[in-house]
Q: What sequence folds into this?
């Protein structure tokens, strides 16, 4: 079982998103443990405040040390080990599929969701092991990035998806985008399913899928090709794309 503990001001957001579908079933089946800890519950302020003005001035408020630290201790006290603790931050390492494959090797992760203008640096220095960002933009809080991390990592936990092939062929898993996919009917809107997919020739279909994955990546995200493990056959096919061939 993989465990996530999320320190947040908005725990209900997580249940609304992660309580159903694949992640919800994985929780019911004992493959995932997700706990959403309300930081405000640990405030010692009579009004349950968790923020204060920053020293030195500046716009907005900062989340204070005490409520976050006590919420963190409520999770970690008595464990006998320190779980990897991640702060969702625009200053962090950009989260991607390779990062997800690293994180899924762990049994326990704590995610800290900031809000307002950020978090007092002292609690970050005390408890945080890693900062992660989901892109070069700023959100109102860390909840949406935390959900993205949980969803991406949880799908890699053995048993969460029925078959590992369900994610191994997906976009970014091998630094390539996914090939086009089709379902019934075989023709609609004047467009037909590629004949190769109706042929029943599995070896040829796999070649087509690989080539289409390369083609889509070449067209939409050529930067990813630098990270992908490419065979001589792959490189030869990419060469035909650069020459204007292989577009079928």
A:
């Amino acid at each position: 079982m993989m465990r996530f503990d999320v320190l947040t001001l908005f725990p209900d957001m997580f249940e609304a998103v992660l309580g159903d579908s694949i992640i919800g079933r994985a929780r019911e089946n004992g493959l995932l443990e997700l706990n959403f800890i309300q930081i405000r519950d640990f405030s010692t302020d009579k009004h349950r405040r968790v923020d204060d003005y920053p020293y030195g001035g500046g716009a907005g408020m900062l989340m204070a040390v005490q409520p976050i630290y006590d919420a963190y201790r409520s999770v970690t006290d008595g464990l006998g080990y320190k779980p990897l603790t991640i702060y969702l931050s625009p200053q962090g390492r950009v989260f991607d599929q390779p990062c997800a494959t690293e994180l899924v090797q762990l049994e326990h992760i704590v995610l800290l969701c900031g809000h307002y203008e950020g978090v007092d640096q002292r609690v970050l220095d005390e408890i945080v092991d890693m900062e992660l960002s989901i892109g070069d933009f700023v959100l109102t809080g860390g909840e949406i990035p935390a959900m993205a991390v949980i969803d991406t990592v949880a799908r890699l936990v053995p048993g969460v998806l029925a078959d590992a092939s369900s994610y191994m062929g997906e976009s970014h898993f091998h630094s390539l985008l996914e090939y086009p996919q089709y379902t019934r009917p075989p023709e609609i809107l004047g467009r037909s399913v590629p004949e190769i997919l109706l042929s029943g020739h599995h070896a040829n279909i796999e070649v087509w899928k690989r080539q289409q994955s390369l083609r889509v990546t070449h067209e939409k995200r050529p930067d990813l090709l630098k990270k992908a493990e490419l065979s001589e056959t792959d490189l030869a096919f990419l060469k035909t794309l650069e020459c204007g061939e292989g577009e079928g």
